[in-house]
Amino acid sequence: MGRGALEIADILRVHGAALRAGGQLSLAQLKVMSAIERCRSAALGGHVLRCNDCERLEISYNSCRNRHCPKCQARNARAWLEARQADLLPVDYYHVVFTLPAPISAIAYTNKSALYGLLFDVAAETLRTIAADPRHLGAHIGPTLVLHTWGSALTHHPHVHGIVPGGGLSADHARWVSCKPGFFLPVRVLSRLFRRRFLEEIEKLYRAGTLRFFGEYATLSDPGTFARWLAPLRQCEWVVYAKRPFAGPAAVLAYLARYTHRVAISNQRLIALDERGVTFRWKDYRLKARARYKTMTLAPDEFLRRFLLHVLPGGFHRIRHYGLIANAARSENLARARELLNPRTLPEAQPTAAQSSTGTSTPTFVCPQCGAPMHIVEVLVRAAHIRAPPRIPRTP
Questions:
Q1: Could you give the CA distance from residue 45 to residue 381 in angstroms, rounded to a whole number?
Q2: Do residues 273 and 280 touch, judged by C-beta distance below 8 A?
Q3: Which of 55, 89, 108, 281: disulfide with 115, CB 3.0–4.6 Å?
Q4: Which helix (H) or strand (E) segment is 336 a member of?
């Protein structure tokens, strides 16, 4: 298959059956595979569209809407960003990343809900604790955290990206406290607290019997072995880093558009599926500039194994809001923040994806030939799933 035409769905349709036959997949992984294979195909049904002007006919098949599907994220991202646009404040925003060390990442794969959830909560607690300290900022802040579990080569690499306004409300909510220009919080202090608090909480999970260990890590079920395994993690450096502030609220939205609904690999990164395997583009972040852009070829089963590493547990939220923008008091806190900030500096509202520059709604379907609106003239019913053997009525 040529470059630009290849999709994850194609690889699954060709090699998915062999992977299923191995019997090593979870129910969640099987559901993701099935959804992606059927996405935007006749199996899910669809509709026939007709252009109002040129009368062009086009068939549009339904999406699977699975959050791991590379083709289904754009619309979800647009809707989410439209909702978040109203939350932006007229201040600098900072990008902070918290990464788990390799030994903990290894056991996180078989303890996803527990350790991914812990990563979220400890990262948020770390940011809020240091920000509330008068020696650093002395303010109540509102971070948004986004979980990514992959590296560019599809390896298991759990980390959270934090998008944080450069300031917050004072303890009594009487004033807005801004951070120093170009500097949010000290990374070394964040790293130390993140390490200490995460290790404290993982020990609590261990004592409660929440963690499970398999394969080469099965010996960690012994408390003495677990304690010895944990000891070096108290001394090594944990990676926390902060990037320079974004260039205004519009840049924050552009960044979030790339990160919030990203999956482990996009179809655009795929190059070929042939007798050698699956070839795709990746970045080697240890190198700089153009040297970091490389290609990699993996056997199809290894490629799919890596892709399925990043299937999240059902119901697990990979975007979470804390502090000022936690759902419970978001509206009140944001209103107070805007009241304290100069209202004249508020960014102008941008037209949403559902509106044109004139404020009128854009059509859901647009003709690719002439650009005119298209309307549905026929609905295509999805194929029925066989969920159980047919019942045979008993003879009297």
A1: 5
A2: no
A3: 108
A4: helix 330-340
Q: What is the pTM of this model?
A: 0.85
173 and 50 in a common domain: no
Same domain, 182 and 202: yes
Q: In which domain, by residue range, is 376 found? A: 8-67+355-380
Same domain, 190 and 229: yes
Measured between its terminal Cα atoms, the distance across the chain in Å is 58
Contact 213, 221 (CB under 8 A): yes
∠ Cα 181 186 187 (to 5°): 120
H-helix or E-strand spanning residue 45: none
| Structural domain total, the chain | 2
Q: Are residues 120 and 238 in the same domain?
A: yes
Residue 274 falls within a domain, yes or no?
no
Do both 30 and 143 map to the same domain?
Answer: no
Same domain membership, residue 145 and residue 20: no
pLDDT tens for the 396 residues of the chain, in order: 444 489 999 999 999 999 999 888 999 999 999 999 999 888 888 888 888 888 888 888 888 889 999 888 777 777 777 777 778 888 889 999 999 999 999 999 999 999 999 999 999 999 999 999 999 999 999 999 999 999 999 999 999 999 999 999 999 999 999 998 888 899 999 999 999 999 999 999 999 999 999 999 999 999 999 999 999 999 999 999 988 778 777 777 777 767 777 899 999 999 999 999 999 999 998 888 888 899 999 999 999 999 999 999 989 999 999 999 998 788 999 999 999 987 544 444 444 444 444 445 556 788 888 888 888 888 887 766 655 555 666 665
E-strand spans in the chain?
A: 46-51, 57-61, 93-99, 144-150, 156-165, 167-169, 176-178, 240-243, 270-274, 277-283, 293-298, 319-321, 374-380
Same domain, 110 and 220: yes
